[in-house]
Amino acid sequence: MRNRFFLWILFLSGAVLFVFTLIAAYREIAPEWKRYQAQYKEQIIKLAKDDATKKKAKELVPAVQQIYLGTLNRIDRCMSCHMGVENPMMANAKLPLKQHSGDYLKNHPPDKFGCTVCHYGQGRATNKKEAHAATRDTHWDFPTIPLKYIQSSCTQCHDYEMLSAKGYDNIAKGAKLFMEKGCRGCHKLNGIGGALGKKLDVVGSQPIAYFPMRFVEGDRNTYNWHKQHFTDPRALVPESEMKINVKPEETDLLATYVLSLRAGEMPKDYRRIKGTQTVEKPDEGEALYRMFCIACHTTGKDSYFDEIFNRTIPAIMKPAFLKTADEKYIKKVVEDGRAGTQMTSWKATAGGLTGVEINNLIAYITKDRPSAKPERFDFAGFKTDLKRGEELYNIRCALCHGKKGQGGEGFLGLNLRNPVVQGADPEFLAITVRDGRSETSMPPFGKKGVGFTDRDIADVVSYVKTMSKKK
Amino acid sequence: MSNETHEKTGMSRRDFLGLASLGAAVISSLTVLAGTFRMFKANVRYEESTKFKIGKAEEFPAGTVKKLDDKGVFILSKDDGIYAISAICTHLGCIVNQVDWGFQCPCHGSRYNEHGKVIGGPAPRSLEWLEISEAVDGSLEVDTAKSVPVGTKLKLYA
Amino acid sequence: MNELKQSGIDVFKHNIKSLLGSFAGSFLRSGKPTSDKSRAAAMFNNFFLHVQGVKTHINTLRPTYTLGLGLISFFLLIITVISGVLLMVYYSPSIEHGYTSVKDINYVVFAGKLIRNVHKWAGEGMIIFVLLHMARVFYTSSYKQGREFNWVVGIVLLILTFGINLSGYMLPWDQLSYWALVIVANIIQSPKEITDSLGITKFFDVGVFSKELFLGGLTAGKESLTRVYLLHIMLLPIFLFIFLGVHFWRIRKDGGLTKPDVFEPKPIDAGLAALPEKRGGIFPTNKTYGLMELAHGRTPVVDRDVENTVLSWPNLLIAEAALFVLCLAGVIAYSFFIDAPLKELANPMIPENPAKAPWYFLGLQELLSYSAFMGGVGLPGLALLGLALIPYLDKEPYHVGIWFSNKQGKRIALESLVVSTIVIIGLLAFVINFGWFRNWWPNVPQMLITLINPGNIWVGFMIVWSLYVIKRTGSTRMGAIALFTMFLISFLIYTYVGTELRGPNWDFFWSKSQWPIH
Amino acid sequence: MKVKIFVLSIILLISQQTGNAFGAEAKKNDPGKKVYEERCQICHGAKGDGKGLVGVMKRSEKTGRMINVEARDFTLAVFRFRSTSTGCLPVNEDFISLINKGIPRSFMPSHKDQLSMEEKKALAEYIKTFSTRWKEEEPCKSIPVKKPRWVGSRSSVEKGKKIYKEMKCWECHGDDGKGKGPKSDTIKDDWGKPIVPFDFTTGATKMGDAPENVYTAYTTGLDGTGMPSYEDSLKEDERWHLVSYTLKLMGKVK
Quick check: is A11 in a domain? Predict the structure, then answer.
């Protein structure tokens, strides 16, 4: 009995092994792409007009079709299924055998460019699921790119002018939007821009895991993420501070643009760049304002409390502000930023703006400066009483600026603890307290408003100037 | 040997089960082995394709001789057509040079005439003529993996 | 002359006819195994077969005794080695091409995906079967009566099995590999926790030193892959095969597999070729171990074969062949349906969340989340030491070769199973719900956590409980059963928790479907 | 009455122009008035009409929508955050709890620690002087709130969702609770200002975001705004179900 038991095991497992080896071998010799190649052969034979073509088609042997691109460090096997991509006879065929649309392949022969350099997808894969890599279980970071974003691939070799001239202007439009919507107020590109957001230099070639995909609708890939993120940043990243002000149709353009920001450069003999390709900063004040400031300060005419930043964003182009604030003060704010708030430092070593550009920018901001000077305030003439100042502050100012002068966090007033306010000329602060900022929520505290005497004001200002030392 | 032991041992009875299981084991192991050997044959090559484009026909007016160093091919154009001769010496695979009277191999002194026919040295065969054809986009294509009979030229209509 | 010539040709013809047979005979050295003598000779004359005895005890051939676990482990090793050699044909160990070469093995190599799966699953199967084999050896008291050293060799083999599996895990250079490598490097670095607490790091930083030795640098990169590859295909396999040789040789020298002192063949054993029969005589047993019983015919004294053994050829060989084909078929069938994972290309900037070691180390990773040193070095070291010491601390010479020794053993095993399950799950539930020292007193010194953490408490409990069992039953064997059972159960539970119930940020989740998707 | 208020406001105006910031020299020794002048007047105005010096405050929501926040006008004596039935005046406790908590998201700060209990009570009394309604009507009784245990349970959320649909909450607050229902652009409050329906997904209601507060809002309604009282149209349990669903929209229960 015992030996028979072992013999039965031997027999049965031998049979199982044999069967599975055969099935596995069949799976190896009859892959998905062979089916398409057989269809291709059949269709070519049917469509052939002359005998030579027919003969050639009959000689077709199924094999993995691959394009080896040494300099691009790619291997593309897409044509194992997409057999007819270069064949005009297949113009009316169905996918995957259909000929490539348009005449792109004339100047971009597949044997030099391959497929994935424009279309993405996994070139090495030999089955549809993994080659197109649409689902996350394929673990490929760059699924085939939807055609509406395909222009992001063109900029690897071409400049915007050439593309726009040929009618492919999504990318240039996207770049323009990027320039004008103030994206660089928070995001650095080529080293220039604010520090609030992430650097965008290679955002187009970041792997999927770089992006929080949790709330993305539809396929969880980079393309959908960008599109939906431009539609509503907080729907994807609840804690995001990103401010976005674009029309729905503009999201695709912006997505195309950011997807074109890729790591690595094409080899020299592929590149055809003559004109501009990157968004370089213009140096007129208005353009600079649009590129760096507009996302937060909008028109600059309104001060408003922003729920995203959780603080009030001042109206920097309002005459009431410009009347009291001199150029030196504004320059200091622009160059050093306001520590403790979202306002970035813009000097060359931080935000990356040159002195000339900052001057141009300030010239633009201050263009509506009224000619009338504010009435002077003789701050030095008062012997100030800090204790009284504190009492006054706690009752009248703390309502909006907070007890510690911190501002933000639900308080309507600005942060008074930051170095810019602390380092400002006390006379400037006193005038601000006295006259308020008309059309904003800062009321005049002088005699015509709340009823502070000049002495009250001097006391409060001197107290405010000591606030950074308070914990 | 003796019959006694034959009766006594299970294996020597060669019952059906023993044979069948031994057969199953051997056959299935052989199948696995066969698949294993097949695995060594690569399905793809990690090198440039043997088929490559050399440009439009206009770039090769009659009388042109062009050596493509990286591919090891001579492209020659005559009045009656264009043809490609392999630059790989048939002796041990060196690259031949073009000289007045044809081709000369620098390694072991094989000599070929202008049609690639071997005329001296250790080379066993003449240089191969390679298939040259017109691709869909109108440019010429050479395939180093496909040889054609000596004298096959592609007629140009231009 | 003519006649001679004629006969010479005939001889030659005859030689050609019998070529196959005579080659087989020369191969086996003693001709076709048709008699007991030649069968015996076939075994002891063969380079590969003579590591096994000429005769095999019937108990050894009983599937219910050995369950074939040791052999399965060995056959899985053979399968792994062969498939590994095949993979080496296409794999290239560099961070530039490693990942793409694995992709190409999946996509364009003939049966490449299957072979990679086979390699992976056979390798990981080894871990399971080596552990099961160890459990079998333990529960049948097979570490006794001269087999003490072989038990220790077995533990070395267990460590090597873990090591080879782990190093192989790193080679595809995908996200799983990279972050497992990072984790392992940090486990290796974990003695720093102790040296830091003692304040001697600045004199001799043993943690960072060994980490650098392993990675070839301070971070995982090009050099690390080369080193891991070397470990995987050269160093560890060499040691594995050396120790395996010793292991097999010692089985033979230590008298084959264990068997009960009192053994009676059952009717079911009747199917064995040449079952020894008792045909009367004066003495009840025959203890001649000379060459005599190999001689043709009956033994002159009692007319009986050596006690309860049968010839290895063919009995043992059939069993082995059956087991081998069973292993191969099992592995291939499993590999046919389940693919070895391959994630995105390694990216040092984007950690996997959770960054998990391979499953067989997730039990350790759970302990690691309490204290890196204790979980990574201290407790595993202690556990292995404890396992190695078992045969030297439990020397009771009875009940060898019987599962669980006796009724009491079964009861103790069951009792330990229940107790350890309750205690571990209790500890886990406590930690998951209430945290540990650091959550209560953020400034608690690391040394205190290293010394007192749930892992240590569990190990302490194991020791105390085993001592209690020894005291209660008066038998060291019972204590050993309790200890080993608890070790197995904790390995099982901790591995399960680490694999299935721990999600991003090492938080607790009831199932993977509750993980926040990233 | 009217004459009295007129005289009072004249006095106030004068005192404002001549007195100093402390208001310590206020004519009447009314602590409520003193506190009001010091802390409230800057937004709510000397006459309690909500036209203080600070004026309209602009607030940009997370969705990018700009809303205007205006100080409450006390002269109509219509209050949103009460514990009494709709149409009723609030009780003193309502004033005090509001002074204590402030109103999140509309810059009304908490005065819990700044004022003593007497001052708070006096302040409430002082605010009552801005409208004649306080003389003519009596405040109703507070509606008791007792939270059932099942609030926030899954079945309760489901029932609440149904009620949300049936009671047409979505017309203003939107199907997804983001305040973008079909009617949301057109509605106006009693003072003629456009109303911004609440976006539940932001999670912080002005009344406080405990389930009890939400329940009170549904029971009493927010007088003066388009938010009606459901005290009569829904049973108590149904209102609690609605609270459950609201908690879900706020992301406080799963």
Answer: no
- Is there a contact between A242 and A226 (Cβ–Cβ < 8 Å)? no
Residue A333 and residue A386 in one domain: no
If asked whether residues A132 and A170 sit together in one domain, one would say no
Residue A345, domain extent: 285-368
- Mean pLDDT, rounded, for D150-162: 87
Give the helix ranges, DSSP H, for C18-68.
19-28, 36-44, 58-61, 63-66
Instruction: Provide the pLDDT for residue B46.
Output: 77
Distance from CA of C202 to the nearest CA of A (A): 37
Residues B126 and B98 in one domain: yes
What does the pLDDT read at residue C233? 94
Segment D48-63 mean pLDDT: 83
Q: List CB contacts (< 8 A) between D61 and chain A.
A: 307
Buried b (16+ CB within 10 A) or exposed e, C416-439: beebbeebbeebbeebeeeebeee
* Number of structural domains in chain D: 2
The Cα–Cα gap between D142 and D139 comes to 9
Q: Do chains D and A touch (3 or more CB pairs under 8 A)?
A: yes
CA A402 remoteness from chain centre: 35
pLDDT at C301 over 70: no
List the structure tokens of A147.
């055609």
Give the residue numbers spanning the domain of C455: 353-518
CA-to-CA distance for C131 and A244, rounded, in angstroms? 58
Residue C318 resides in a domain = yes
Task: Say yes or no: D115 and D191 in one domain.
Answer: no
Q: Which chain D residues have a beta carbon less than 8 Å from that of A318?
A: none
> Which secondary structure element, helix H or strand E, spans residue D16, and what is its range?
helix D2-18
Rounded to whole angstroms, the Cα distance separating C307 from A354 reads: 99
Give dist(CA A262, CA A204) in Å, integer.
5
Of the ranges A48-62, A94-108, A157-171, C255-269, which one carries the lowest mean pLDDT score? C255-269
Region A378-385: what's the mean pLDDT?
Answer: 84
Interface with chain A: mutation pick from B13, B21, B52, highest number of A CBs within 10 Å = B21
- Position B107 in a domain: yes
Whether C314 and chain B come into contact, CB under 8 Å, resolves to: yes
Neighbours of chain C (3+ CB pairs under 8 A): A, B
Tell whether B110 and B144 lie within a shared domain.
yes
A447 to each of A456, C50, D41, how far by Cα in Å?
Answer: 10, 112, 15
Q: Which residue in the set A302, A443, A453 is minimally distant from D20, CB to CB?
A: A453
Tell me the residue range of the domain where B29 lies.
3-40
Using pLDDT thresholds of 50, 70 and 90, give the confidence band for residue B157.
low
Q: Write down the mean pLDDT value for chain C.
A: 84
Tell me whether residue C118 is exposed, middle or buried, using C-beta atoms within 10 angstroms of its C-beta: 0 to 12, 13 to 18, 19 or more: buried
Q: Say which residues have a Cβ less than 8 Å from residue D65's Cβ, sequence separation at least 6.
A: D196
A147 in any annotated domain: no
Question: What local confidence, expressed as pLDDT, does residue A3 receive?
Answer: 78
B153 belongs to a structural domain:
no
Domain-located, residue B77: yes
Asked whether residue D229 is domain-assigned, the answer is: yes
Residue A191 burial (C-beta neighbours within 10 Å; 0-12, 13-18, 19+): exposed
Q: Cα torsion for C199, C205, C206, C210, to the nearest 10°? A: 150
pLDDT value, residue D3: 52
* CA quadruple C241, C245, C250, C253: dihedral, nearest 10: 170
Structural domain boundaries enclosing D12? 2-136
Which DSSP state fits C57?
Answer: E
Owner of token pair 């993994």 = A130
Among residues A87, A105, A140, the one where a domain terminates is A140
Beta-bridge partners for C71: none
Cβ of D60 within 8 Å of Cβ of A449? The answer is no
In a domain, C282, yes or no: no
Q: Is there a contact between D39 and A244 if contact means CB atoms under 8 Å apart?
A: no
